[in-house]
From TrEMBL:
Protein name stated in the entry: Glycosyl transferase family 2
SUPFAM superfamilies: Nucleotide-diphospho-sugar transferases (SSF53448)
Domain Glycosyltransferase 2-like: 5-131
InterPro entries on file: Glyco_trans_2-like, Nucleotide-diphossugar_trans
MF (Gene Ontology): hexosyltransferase activity
UniProt keyword Nucleotide-binding present: no
Alphabetical UniProt keywords: Transferase
Length: 249
């Protein structure tokens, strides 16, 4: 079984290839397949994808409909042989070896539905090493981020699509629905995602993100109130971040 990585993108031509390199360079038993969903980019994204064409990468172009619709298009295009799924935003990167490590964890814990690692906030990533650049500011912590997990396909199928009526907090809503399944998981302290901080990414929209989180939490509470059979099992999110290797807090 392969690992499928869904990469939604919008106007990230300058960063997209780094994200793809970080996936395609991974030595994954069974192989990796990437589904890039271009959500109506108006920059050079199409040309970048054409120049870096790879048989392991499928590209879907759609009219601008939002990140939830883009991720849903990726879910709808999952290859039959994909037994594991994860997500990567097109301005972020995976650390080397991360997917193989998570596959090994799930193999060792067949009862677990997913893995969950740490994320490293970083303001500059080296285009050569795909690691935090020398002198980059970094903070590593357990956070609510889709790309920190590797999920069994059966669990992804059970959760269903992303909420297209949410422009902020849609990933939190999705993870809350994951927690409501009560699925067992393997949590670890390795870095699973380098999350790039820059001036125009959505996490800098603090007020909107807070509202999105509150909305996702309210929806989860309403679902669990309406259906007491829903569970709640989530990773332990550390409140105290720690510096990442090679960076500074």
């Amino acid at each position: 079984m392969t690992v499928a990585v869904i990469v939604p993108t919008f106007n990230r031509a300058g960063l997209l290839l780094q994200a793809l390199r970080s996936v395609l360079s991974q030595p994954v038993p069974g192989g990796v397949s990437v589904i890039v969903v271009d959500d109506g980019s108006t920059d050079e994204t199409a040309a970048v994808l054409a120049a870096g064409a790879d048989p392991r990468v499928r590209v879907i172009f759609q009219r601008n409909s939002g990140v939830s619709a883009a991720r849903n298009a990726g879910l709808g295009a999952l290859p039959e042989k994909a037994g594991f799924v994860t997500f990567l935003d097109s301005d972020d990167v995976f650390p080397a070896g991360r997917l193989a490590d998570d596959l090994a964890r799930l193999t060792a814990a067949p009862q677990a539905g997913y893995t969950y690692g740490r994320m490293c906030y970083v303001d500059e990533i080296s285009s050569e090493t795909l690691r935090p650049a020398a002198g980059a500011r970094t903070v590593t912590l357990h956070g609510i981020q889709l790309g920190c997990g590797l999920y069994r396909r059966a669990l992804i199928d059970r959760i269903g699509p992303f909420a297209t009526d949410m422009t902020h907090g849609e990933d939190t809503d999705y993870l809350f629905r994951l927690y409501e399944t009560g699925a067992a998981f393997v949590q670890h302290d390795d870095i699973s995602l380098y999350y790039r901080r820059h001036t125009d990414n959505v996490t800098n929209q603090t007020d909107l993100n807070r509202r999105g989180f509150a909305r996702a939490l309210m929806r989860s509470m309403q679902r669990r109130r309406a259906d007491p059979s829903l569970g709640w099992s989530m990773p332990d999110f550390a409140l105290q971040p720690r510096p990442a290797e090679g960076g500074s807090a």
